């Protein structure tokens, strides 16, 4: 446990020490999910997960941009296949992902397909998780012409988490998640709210708790430290208060 804490602190300090662009910003944000899981059999479930993000504080080094307030709406929906064998478990979600980007002047959105294999290994009080998200963007309204709005880009997000059970209902969660642009659209210019550019673009560090309130409902308050990059330089440093609500229904 101490080793994991030391590693996370080293990553945060290393991110802070990287060169920053002239237009870098530091923000404070709130992010919440409501994760509804409907079990339809022992191995299959259907998931609906709406979310919203709000920016309540912003400090710009140069551009003096105002805080965004409500700046992101999202909805993930789709089936998940799961299997468990001994200490190992596996989930194979295949979801549609709607991303909305409200601003004072416009409302842009994108349509995405997510495939995210998840593997868990439990050893006593420790649960290790690996989740690889293949984020496929197929439509982005931010572009001017219909031809540019329809395209394709691929981002891979590799999430590693360690959860430590403090007791039967409470666990400590620590995780890291880098984002890599792998395939860039051949025609549309790269955009953070459209088709992503290639390369290492984002990293998130998560730390917090998970409360298993009942067998069917859990609550997870987390702190998220996020750094955005452009050609190796830090463009934004974002601090999130992240709160997720998780509810499980059995339909069989």
Question: Please, could you describe this protein's structure?
Answer:
This protein is mainly beta and 252 residues long. It has helices at residues 2-17, 146-149, and strands at 20-39, 44-60, 69-85, 88-102, 107-115, 118-123, 126-140, 150-165, 170-183, 199-214, 217-230, 233-250. The chain has a single domain (2-250), classed as Porin. The protein contains 2 helices and 12 strands. The mean pLDDT is 91.
What are its keywords?
8% helix, 252 residues, twelve-stranded mixed sheet, mainly beta, globular, Porin
Brief digest:
This protein is mainly β. It is built from two helices and twelve strands; from the N terminus they run αβββββββαβββββ.
Task: List the topology elements.
Layout: H1 2-17, E1 20-39, E2 44-60, E3 69-85, E4 88-102, E5 107-115, E6 118-123, E7 126-140, H2 146-149, E8 150-165, E9 170-183, E10 199-214, E11 217-230, E12 233-250
The backbone outline, from C-alpha atoms, is globular
| Mean pLDDT level | 91
* Main β sheet profile: 12 strands, mixed
CATH superfamily, by name, is monomeric porin ompg
CATH topology: Porin
Relative helix content? under 10%
What is the straight-line distance between the termini? 39 Å
Number of spatially distinct domains = 1
Taken in chain order, the helices and strands follow as HEEEEEEEHEEEEE
Would you report the number of β strands?
12
Number of helices: 2
Structural class: mainly beta
Radius of gyration: 19 Å
Name the beta content range: over 45%
